[in-house]
Design goal:
mainly beta
């Protein structure tokens, strides 16, 4: 079993990138503390820590747009997670499927 404490040596909060299983699309970035990480492992659904509200939240707990966890990978430094999910409904609170819908820059063809 995973040693959760290993991931929290540098910080109390861990960035978690959430990616859709079927498409590979990045859906969102959120943060986990040890408690939300444990709840995610226990339930099989994503739990995060809200930095603004200073509390745990279950993604989709209110909206029904839940994220069923398929797998979780840690990066080489053990300070970021990549969570692959099956997304039900929209991942973004705006109603967009992904939180990454605002184009900032795009390479132009010459």
């Amino acid at each position: 079993m995973i040693n959760i404490e290993e991931y929290f040596k540098k910080s109390e909060l861990l960035p978690a990138i959430v990616q859709e299983k079927d498409t590979g699309e990045v859906l969102m970035l959120a943060y986990m503390n040890q408690e939300s990480f444990k709840k995610t492992l226990e339930t099989g659904y994503t739990w995060f820590y809200s930095r603004s509200r200073q509390e745990l939240w279950n993604k989709g707990g209110t909206s029904g747009h839940v994220q069923k966890v398929v797998d979780i990978k840690g990066d080489c430094d053990q300070d970021t997670l990549l969570i692959t999910v099956v997304q039900k409904g929209a991942a973004c609170h705006t109603g967009a499927h992904s939180c990454f819908f605002r184009e900032v820059w795009k390479e132009r063809e010459l």
